[in-house]
Amino acid sequence: MKISPTVSIITPCFNAEKTLENTVASVLAQSYLEWELILIDDHSTDTTYTQAMRYAEADPRIKAVRMETNGGAAKARNRGIEMAQGRYIAFIDADDLWHTDKLKTQIALMEANNWALSFTSYKRIDGVGKPLSNVGVPHKATYKKLLKTNYIGCSTAIYDSKIVGKVLMPDIRKRQDFALWLKLLKICEFAHGIREPLTTYRVHKNSLSSNKANSARYNWHIYRNIEKLGLLRSCYYFAHYATRGFLRSKMPNIALLLGFLHRSSHQG
């Protein structure tokens, strides 16, 4: 008998042939069984889509779709959200991993407490799987707190579409997940953190998150153009973002961040 999915898991894939197998395996290993996995190939140039089709043929809970052109993670994730049949919308990127009880633990807490948005602590590994660090999260995050720093790792997050509806990511090339959490927090007020690390996040040398200046530009873009914050409020939240980034970084580049802030402020 076919089980209707309670959770729809959205995975954008672009040239992920080296990591997708392990990501899918971590979903297949979930102790919570009522899920569907939607693999959206963002017009890869390697064997990613062939792999995705093979997984879909092997398990009816897995769906594979290919974008006609490469449009970026936001477009790919939004395609998955639109296809989703489950009440809960979860995200895992094509190089990340989930703990076996990730869905079981998170969905149980969301159902018991009527949470609209939740996220978890996570572990960080490098490109070859070497442990780097654990990243903790607060019990609660609000819109204003998240503007200062994004506590929510994309592959840790789940939202309840029964409470907030199907909410899509803003169509920007980078930091679209951060923009989505802000969008959701204007609807549901709180995001609830789970202190147990239930996700493993892979950090690549050339990943977007490792490019501090690039991330800074997109944070500023979100403040000014997505959230429509005034200049002073944008400067206030950007200063918090830059300071926290400095404290977390092993090789800080605070001068670059502050220089960008100065130029952006004058550009208005």
Folded structure, characterized:
- This protein is α/β, with parallel strands linked by helices and 268 residues long.
- The chain has 2 domains: 7-202, Spore Coat Polysaccharide Biosynthesis Protein SpsA, Chain A (Alpha-Beta Complex); 211-267.
- Helices cover 42% and strands 21% of the residues.
- The protein has 10 helices and 10 strands.
- The chain has helices at residues 20-28, 48-58, 73-83, 102-113, 143-148, 161-164, 176-188, 212-226, 231-248, 254-267; strands at 7-13, 35-41, 62-66, 88-91, 97-98, 117-125, 131-135, 140-141, 158-160, 191-202.
- Strands 1, 2, 3, 4, 5, 6, 7, 8, 9 and 10 form a 10-stranded mixed beta sheet that branches.
- β6 (117-125) and β7 (131-135) form a beta hairpin.
- α8 runs antiparallel to α9, α8 runs parallel beside α10 (254-267) and α9 (231-248) runs antiparallel to α10 (254-267).
- The longest helix is centred in the C-terminal third of the chain and has 18 residues, at 231-248.
- The protein is globular and about 55 Å long.
- 39% of the residues are buried.
- This is Glycosyl transferase group 2 family protein.
- It comes from Alcanivorax hongdengensis A-11-3.
- InterPro entries: Glyco_trans_2-like, Nucleotide-diphossugar_trans.
- One of its GO terms (molecular function) is hexosyltransferase activity.
- Pfam families: Glycos_transf_2.
